[in-house]
């Protein structure tokens, strides 16, 4: 016997079924359109000459063909992110001549790697050091730190799969401590560029690099802070700065002329010697920063690491690739970051913002109506609390781009649009009319020429030793103690007090640059503004 079951669909149920079918159809249509758009995007980029693409455009082509399946860490599991990133983080070994340097018998690389990599003894002959880098293009472009490859004679890149390449420097940007190098390869693994603006304080991140020559090391932590300006990248004397990892506490409290752009992502993911130039990635495996520095009294991890935001790096790297150097726009002001002490010193009540101390003649700020004494309170509508709030925004732009700032003047705020100008001369400083004797007295120290034994001990060819430091003067305030060796002032070798007299009257825009060695053998290179 066959039973037949007649099903009668009531109109209301039929309507529901029809609606569901429409939803399914709409979903399929959306998926089809999305796929077509993705394919269309790929075809558009495919037709564009690869050499004319930015790194982001090149990556869009790459990841359209090689989609990532990394999931974010709802549960704390970083295995997918680590697996996606590790193959594209490289180990960089550099060889450089021990003869390069400042005329004082030791090179900046001796100072950098001697302090940071623990090579306290400076052997004769060619020196070697190491760091990390991140492949960002399948044809071999690698981002790293400027201080990793600066002045290197030979750069060897080791991939995670043990392949070895020789690299050439495409270009560097000391102002951000970034460098772009290139190896000859094809179909290389890359790390996907992320969006550092989207990084949130408290989110998980991974640091990937080669600390202590331990290849492909992954550490985890969180974003501890953003927009950190810690004053360790360069100055006008960028090419001879001491190790940016040194984080010595003997930092000058005097105003400095500094073109550095610092807006670091701070993390507590362990970063150690050799991590420099490596990747800071989110849990999706996206590159959000280039590890650059640590805050440490010992040269090793103490809980604070700093990475250059990738959104700032994108502009720098694309400029280097396209132009061979960075095309940077400038507002055309010198400013002082306000805090309680600065406000008291300037005799003003506001303790946040950037106090405009000087204007560049013919600069963008002057043309826009900014005045000396204005306080920059906002940039693009966002509050300005420290210099990094302005510098990173400007650092992403080109000459000719416009930026909106808000200034406080006579108790009221004014909105101004500044058109950025190309590199111009630094703001004019007041002429220093003081005699050599007056300037010498400002130092507040006494000196004696080095003996042969002292030259041998500190491995220098010239210098004077500090024999006395007087309270309240420059050497005392900046903690240059008795027993320190002064090797250069304003890049002039020092052997006597007469050399000091000559050097301190040869100022650069009122800046005094003193290079030397502390009694414990570590180097310093400080710049001071002489009023």
Task: Identify the notable features of this structure and list them briefly.
531 residues, alpha+beta, six-stranded antiparallel β-barrel, globular
Number of helices: 13
Tell me roughly what share of residues is in helical segments: 10-25%
The N- and C-terminal alpha carbons lie at a distance of 111 Å
Q: Number of DSSP strands?
A: 26
- Shape field: globular
Record the SSE blueprint.
Elements: H1 11-47, H2 55-65, H3 79-85, E1 89-96, H4 108-116, E2 127-135, E3 141-145, H5 146-149, E4 154-158, E5 164-166, E6 168-173, E7 178-182, E8 192-193, E9 204-209, E10 217-228, E11 264-267, E12 279-282, E13 286-294, E14 305-309, H6 310-323, E15 333-337, H7 340-346, E16 354-359, H8 364-368, E17 375-379, E18 382-383, H9 387-395, E19 402-409, E20 412-419, H10 436-443, E21 445-449, H11 452-458, E22 464-469, H12 474-477, E23 485-489, E24 492-493, H13 497-504, E25 511-517, E26 523-529
Parallel strand pairs: 8-13
Antiparallel strand pairs: 1-2, 1-4, 2-3, 3-7, 4-5, 6-7, 9-10, 9-12, 10-11, 11-14, 12-13, 13-14, 15-16, 16-17, 17-18, 17-19, 19-20, 21-22, 22-23, 23-24, 23-25, 25-26
Helix pairs in contact: 1-2, 10-13
Note down, in words, how this protein is organized.
The chain is built from 13 helices and 26 strands. By secondary structure, it is α+β, with helices and mostly antiparallel strands. The strands form 4 sheets. It has a 7-stranded antiparallel sheet with strand order 5-4-1-2-3-7-6. The chain has a 6-stranded antiparallel beta barrel with strand order 9-10-11-14-13-12. α10 packs across α13. It starts with 10 loop residues before the first helix and ends with a strand. Mean pLDDT is 78; it is low at 1-11, 99-123, 235-258 and 425-433. Keywords: Hydrolase, Protease, Repeat, Serine protease, Signal.
């Amino acid at each position: 016997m066959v039973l037949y079951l007649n099903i009668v669909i009531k109109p209301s149920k039929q309507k529901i079924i029809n609606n569901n079918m429409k939803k399914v159809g709409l979903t399929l249509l959306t998926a089809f359109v999305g796929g077509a758009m993705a394919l269309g995007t790929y075809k558009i980029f495919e037709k564009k000459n690869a050499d004319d693409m930015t790194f982001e455009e090149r990556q869009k082509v790459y990841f359209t063909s090689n989609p990532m399946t990394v999931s974010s860490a709802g549960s704390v599991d970083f295995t997918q992110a680590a697996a996606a990133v590790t193959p594209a983080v490289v180990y960089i070994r550099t060889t450089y001549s021990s003869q390069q340097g400042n005329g004082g018998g030791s090179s900046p690389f001796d100072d950098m790697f001697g302090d940071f990599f623990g090579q306290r003894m400076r052997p004769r002959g060619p020196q070697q050091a190491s760091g990390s880098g991140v492949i960002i293009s399948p044809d071999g472009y690698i981002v790293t730190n400027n201080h990793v490859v600066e002045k290197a004679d030979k750069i060897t890149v080791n991939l995670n799969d043990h392949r070895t390449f020789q690299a050439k420097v495409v270009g560097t940007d000391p102002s951000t401590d970034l460098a772009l190098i290139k190896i000859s390869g094809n179909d290389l693994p890359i790390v996907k560029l992320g969006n550092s603006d989207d990084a949130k304080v408290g989110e998980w991140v991974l640091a990937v690099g080669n600390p202590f020559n331990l290849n492909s090391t992954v550490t985890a932590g969180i974003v501890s802070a953003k927009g950190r300006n810690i004053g360790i990248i360069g100055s006008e004397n960028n090419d001879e700065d001491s190790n940016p990892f040194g984080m010595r506490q003997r930092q000058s409290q005097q105003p400095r002329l500094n073109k550095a752009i610092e807006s670091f992502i701070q993390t507590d993911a362990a970063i150690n010697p050799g991590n420099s130039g490596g990747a800071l990635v989110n849990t999706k495996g996206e590159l959000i920063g280039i590890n650059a520095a640590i805050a440490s009294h010992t040269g090793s991890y103490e809980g604070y690491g700093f990475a250059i935001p990738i959104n700032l790096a994108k502009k720098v790297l694309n400029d280097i690739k396209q132009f061979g150097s960075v095309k940077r726009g400038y507002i055309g002001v010198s400013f002082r970051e306000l805090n309680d002490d600065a406000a008291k010193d300037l005799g003003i009540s506001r303790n946040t913002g950037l106090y405009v101390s000087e204007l560049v003649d013919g600069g963008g700020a002057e043309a826009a109506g900014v005045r000396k004494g204005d306080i920059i309170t906002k940039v693009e509508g966002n509050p300005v609390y420290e210099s990094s709030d302005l510098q990173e925004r400007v650092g992403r732009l080109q000459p000719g781009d416009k930026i909106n700032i808000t200034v406080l003047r006579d108790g009221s705020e004014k909105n101004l649009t500044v058109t950025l100008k190309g590199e111009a001369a630094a703001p004019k400083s007041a002429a220093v009319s003081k005699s050599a004797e007056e300037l010498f007295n400002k130092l507040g120290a006494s000196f004696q020429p080095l003996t042969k034994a002292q030259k041998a001990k500190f491995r220098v060819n010239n210098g004077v030793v500090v024999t006395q430091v007087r309270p309240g003067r420059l050497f005392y305030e900046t903690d240059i103690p008795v027993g320190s060796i002064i090797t250069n002032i304003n890049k002039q070798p020092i052997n006597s007090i007469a050399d000091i007299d000559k050097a301190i009257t040869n100022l650069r825009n009122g800046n005094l640059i003193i290079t030397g060695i502390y009694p414990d053998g570590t180097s310093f290179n400080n710049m001071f503004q002489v009023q």
